[in-house]
């Protein structure tokens, strides 16, 4: 399962609306791809459709779609939004990551 913090949920709903998506029926697609300074990097985008290999979760009024192969790396992750002095953006708090880079956009197992 992937969780979404209250702050991230509010930001996602607002951003989806701004981009022409409806949080009640569309999805936040999260994934993992090769790359980044630690070996793997996170992906985050909005999507209107599901693929045949997607797992779907709903938490805090957000529907999350994850391809099965990415889910192996993301199980137990909490998606948060940080607006502090270090910059604004989404943060993946991933219990599976053994090492993350300074920017928080990539990780390794």
TrEMBL record:
The GO biological-process annotations, alphabetized, read as:
iron-sulfur cluster assembly
Q: Which domain of life is it from?
A: Bacteria
Q: Name one Pfam family in it.
A: Fe-S_biosyn
Q: Which residues form the Core domain?
A: 2-105
Q: Which GO terms describe its cellular component?
A: cytoplasm
PROSITE patterns noted in UniProt: HESB
Q: Name one GO molecular function term.
A: 2 iron, 2 sulfur cluster binding
Q: Which family does it belong to?
A: Belongs to the HesB/IscA family.
Protein known as: Iron-sulfur cluster assembly protein
Q: Which organism is it from?
A: Flavobacterium noncentrifugens
């Amino acid at each position: 399962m992937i969780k979404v913090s209250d702050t991230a949920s509010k930001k996602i709903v607002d951003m989806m609306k701004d981009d022409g998506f409806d949080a009640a029926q569309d999805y936040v697609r999260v994934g993992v791809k090769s790359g980044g300074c630690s070996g793997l990097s996170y992906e985050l985008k909005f999507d209107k459709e599901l693929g045949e290999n997607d797992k779907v979760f709903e938490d805090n009024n957000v529907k999350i779609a994850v391809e099965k192969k990415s889910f192996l790396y993301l199980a137990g992750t909490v998606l948060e939004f940080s607006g502090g002095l270090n910059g604004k953006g989404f943060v993946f708090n991933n219990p599976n990551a053994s090492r993350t880079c300074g920017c928080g956009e990539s990780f390794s197992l």
